[in-house]
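User: Just a sanity check before I run the rest of the batch. Below are the structure tokens for the first item. I only need the designed sequence back.
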């Protein structure tokens, strides 16, 4: 995979790290670093789990979707209490902050297990994010997308939507009220059918007024891809295995639907064989279709958002201006619709971009000035 990905130089990696970035496609369980998982596994109560979890740590050059979906249940076993869930949220947010991510939308699937009900799961995540903000008042900002998993029964999705609605009512007026900013469909793309989940998402969009992102084109299926475009989601995740007809439709007719691009994930899971063949290179960059670079599962894939920027910029020889505008697009495609919050994020973005491009004390910087600094209105809600 290394070859296919293009190696990035230390200088590009360092510049991409200093760039302020937004992460819009990150699954909580897939974000936990191996170091953190090892730390949790060393605890006496996890002795039995330790042997089972060794597959998480084997060095890999590829990880097909089937293997990937075998790892998640093991990580779920590691997160075996609200206290551990809270701890991993903190750890994941620390990792993003260390990578100079200023805004992250964490997506996660509320689950039922011995330790959780969907209600307890969501409440714990929201409490953890809220506490993280309070402990880091000038730190990164996190928002949450509630995930529906297509490989689980439809009934489960219905329950999650109901619980989300109840929680949103319960937290209205508190500091947690704005934390849930969207809904998303993910899960094993070989299982479940969009036709079955669509009515649930239609109903939730009407009732909750939240934007929706759909995992789209992770495997080739024109019928499903067209049905998903007919639904007009606010964003699409992956969009990597598409027929020419679907790709053309997306780029020409659906110009407002931003794509969450996950390069390393797509290469690792063998959705494409090289970055040169990835739609971000063959289609999105040239058409100026809006997209945001994302990590998907950085813990499992051993990547960071900076690394994703460095690989793309080096492999396609993008100018720093172009890379900076890709980073800005990440913020523009955010599901956060609170104008005050967005304004503050844009200010942080431009301040940090200035530092990245020109150093702390520069009074004039042509590179950062090339970027249009007007603060755009929040993304409209699609219906
Ligand atoms: C590799 N590409 C992918 N494609 C589709 N779904 C994925 C995914 N990577 C992760 N997930 C989804 O996220 C869950 C784990 O995080 P949470 O427990 O929800 O935080 C997985 O169970 C799967 O449903």
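Assistant: Here's the designed sequence for the first item:
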């Amino acid at each position: 995979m290394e070859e296919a990905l293009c190696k990035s130089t230390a200088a590009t990696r360092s510049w991409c790290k200093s760039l302020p970035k937004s992460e819009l496609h990150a699954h909580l369980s897939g974000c936990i670093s191996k170091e953190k998982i090892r730390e949790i596994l060393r605890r006496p109560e996890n002795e039995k789990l330790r042997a089972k979890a060794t597959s998480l740590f084997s060095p890999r050059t590829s990880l097909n979707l089937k293997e990937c979906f075998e790892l998640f249940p093991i990580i779920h076993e590691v997160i075996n209490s609200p206290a551990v869930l809270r701890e991993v949220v903190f750890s994941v947010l620390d990792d993003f902050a260390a990578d100079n991510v200023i805004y992250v939308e964490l997506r996660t699937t509320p689950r039922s297990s011995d330790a959780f009900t969907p209600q307890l799961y969501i409440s714990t995540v929201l409490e953890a994010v809220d506490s993280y903000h309070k402990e880091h008042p000038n730190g990164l900002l996190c928002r949450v997308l509630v995930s529906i998993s297509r490989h689980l029964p439809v009934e489960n999705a219905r329950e999650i939507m109901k619980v989300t609605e109840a929680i949103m009512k319960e937290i209205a007026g508190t500091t947690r009220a704005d934390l849930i900013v969207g809904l998303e469909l993910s899960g094993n793309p070989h299982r479940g059918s969009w036709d079955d989940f669509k009515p649930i998402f239609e109903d939730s969009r009407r009732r909750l007024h939240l934007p929706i992102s759909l995992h789209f084109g992770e495997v080739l299926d024109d019928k499903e891809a067209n049905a998903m475009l007919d639904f007009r989601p606010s964003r699409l995740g992956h969009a990597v295995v598409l027929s020419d007809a679907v790709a053309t439709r997306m780029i020409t007719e659906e110009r407002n639907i931003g794509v969450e691009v996950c390069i390393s994930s797509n290469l690792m899971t063998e959705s494409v064989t090289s970055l040169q063949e990835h739609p971000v290179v063959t289609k999105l960059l040239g058409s100026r279709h809006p997209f945001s670079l994302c990590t998907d599962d950085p813990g499992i894939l051993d990547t960071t958002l900076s690394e994703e920027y460095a690989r793309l910029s080096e492999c396609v020889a993008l100018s720093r201006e172009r890379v900076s505008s890709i980073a800005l697009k990440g913020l523009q495609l955010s599901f956060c619709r609170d104008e005050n919050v967005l304004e503050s994020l844009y200010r942080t973005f431009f301040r940090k971009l200035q530092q990245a491009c020109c150093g702390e004390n520069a009074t004039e910087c042509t590179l950062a000035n090339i970027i249009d600094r007007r603060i755009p209105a929040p993304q409209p809600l699609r219906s």
